[in-house]
Amino acid sequence: MIFDTDIFIWVQRKNIKAAKLMEKSENRLLSTQTYMELLQCAKNKTQHQFVKDFITSYGFIVLPFTENIGHRASIYIEEYTLSSNLRSGDAIIAATAVENNMTLVSGNARHYKMIKDLRLKIFRP
Q1: What span, in angstroms and rounded, lies between the C-alpha atoms of 52 and 23?
Q2: What pTM was estimated for this model as a whole?
Q3: Would you tell me how many other CB atoms lie within 10 Å of the CB of residue 17?
Q4: What is the Cα 17 distance to its own chain's centre?
Q5: Is 116 helix (H, G, I), strand (E, B) or coil?
Q6: I need a labelling partner for 119 at 20 to 30 A (CA). Which of 14, 29, 46, 76 fits?
Q7: How many CA atoms lie within 13 A of 25 on its CB side?
Q8: Side by side, which strands form the sheet with 103-106?
Q9: Residue whose C-alpha is closest to residue 107's, from 93, 88, 95, 92
Q10: Eight-state DSSP code of residue 65
Q11: What's residue 79's pLDDT?
Q12: How far apart are CA 4 and CA 35, in angstroms?
């Protein structure tokens, strides 16, 4: 399962349901985009280190950004930006899940629901 950025934020906010979801997941994956978003939200080097330590200690695998992911994300942008306001970061995260044949778990259904080939698990905090 690939975790969207918002799930990590829920865990940081001490949401038990989000933490249990991560704990029971056999495969803990995230896109490079999510990893960058988590680092970007850090306010200092201590928080940067916390993000890196969390990812490492819980055995998350950061999936690389590939040419196929970039191509698929650009197709999603062409298809869905005008009609659904899809943002590039979300397109990259969705494309990472689809290209790796994985389910994406997110609490932001509206960001992804229009993408037909994406397996999406909705998280409700």
Answers
A1: 17
A2: 0.94
A3: 12
A4: 17
A5: coil
A6: 14
A7: 23
A8: 61-63, 29-31, 2-3, 103-106, 119-122
A9: 93
A10: P
A11: 97
A12: 10
